[in-house]
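lol ok so funny story. i was supposed to be doing the assay writeup but got distracted and ended up predicting the structure for this chain instead. priorities right. anyway since i did it might as well share w the group, maybe its usefull for someone
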Amino acid sequence: MTSNVETKSVNRRRFLKGSAVAAGTAAVGTVAMPNVSRAETVTLKMQSSWGASDIFQDMAKQYVERCEKMSGGRLKFDLLPAGAVVKAFQVQDACSDGIIDCAHTVTAYWYGKNKAASLFGTGPVLGCDATQMLAWIQTQEGRDLYKELTQKILGLDVVGFFAMPMPTQPLGWFKKEIKSADDLQGLKYRTVGLATDIMQGMGLKVTQLPGGEIVPALERGVIEAFEFNNPTSDRQFGAQNVSKDYHLGSYHQAAEFFEIIFSKKKFESLPAEIQAICEYGAEAASTANYGLALDRYSKDLQGLMKEEGVKVHRTPTSVMQAQLGAWDKVLETLEKDAFFKKVVDSQRAWAERVAFYYLTNAADYELAFNHYYPGKLKKA
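and the output, tada:
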């Protein structure tokens, strides 16, 4: 019988021997892994629909940076601004055709192919905000409907993911304060997506333009008023140099998100772990994008008011009620399309359940704000 001392001695020798082998293996792995990573590094050419200096390009960079870091150097992006390869509205086709590998855009930019595209970014306000509608897209039903539209109905060679529940987009910039829906009649106005149908239904003359073309169009008189997305981008465009009345609050685009699309062929050629990084990197970027948005948008709104002499107004409730009426008419027409109706029905069921929970449960934040900052908020 072996003594306990001898057993411990043998076990200790075996442990040390095993540790030495393991250490040697680890040392080899430490040397070899960087070479393997370099050998398997993938560089994807991504173009956005945004100008190089726009905050949306910074948000695209947040996505790229997170994916690259999570990949441990195995994934790189060559991120380009709008126009570097194709125009802002053409990135989807460029992805599908393999001209670029991926893009950072919004679905409203390709709604001309099928108006259901706007239901994944500029759809009707059924009671949910952007955060709650992004949650709908992330459900299996939402994902399946997006896939059905892009791959089956339109036959596009793309896969896509969504990020960043955008704060409600302002009604926009005007030459004078808008006090009623009558003040909008006949105005030459810029917007995109289904918002085009909504604003046309309210009597505006609508032109769709990429962000970089807005201010030149204002200066030439092609448009008289516009909305883009947020105080930061609007300030960077120089909207305050052309107009001074800025209306916040609207139902035309109250739940939009970024669409991050890939060539399906290219995406499926990537290793599974890199595919996962590209997909779930969108979720990581969504949080970062939203944090950046709230910080910058709020600062630039204050800057527009205090430094640029912009008069900020809350859009009158009567105008937003008119928007809801316009939505009703547009939906009545578009729901004659079976697929469009299928998507809206899914969203209606989601909103009835989710918005009921949220609105019943949410604290009254306006009450709290008025308690601590009395007199700051202006009623429409």
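Residues 1-39 have pLDDT under 50 and may be disordered. The CA atoms of residues 43 and 315 lie 45 Å apart.
back to the writeup now i swear
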